[in-house]
Specification:
54% helix; Phosphatidylinositol Transfer Protein Sec14p; alpha/beta; five-stranded mixed sheet; 6 helices
Amino acid sequence: MHFFEGAWPLLVLVGPQRMASAEVDEMLKGFDRYFERGERYALLTVMPRGIQLPGARERKQMVDWASSATVRDFTAKLCVGAATLVTNPLMQGALTAILWLWKPPSPHAAVRSVSDGLDFCLERLAAERIPMAESPSVMRGAVDDELREIL
């Protein structure tokens, strides 16, 4: 599990190879520091190639967390948009199942490439007039460099 904030206010979450209950807990607790920070952001979630799909228990764990009033309030207030990179057809099905059970409190897109995810997130930041310390091209470069090392 890795949170990359080197292109803040664009936050990138790279998931683990295996989404067992402990990894889901780590991911969910990782968001606390961004909620406490209180700054608006866009989120790009990327899962590494060959990820083991989360089981029913882990999917329920994520849905329960995401459905809690506190998380929904913080997400609606702070997250201007989220994109999830979904290249694996089975992962597409898992994300679809989650979205059937959970309506995100901010705009959410399932994307098929990092570039599409960056487009969505950067467009959401611009639409909400979120100040960015770097140009979109510099932010793209930072994310591409980070993901090249991880994926």
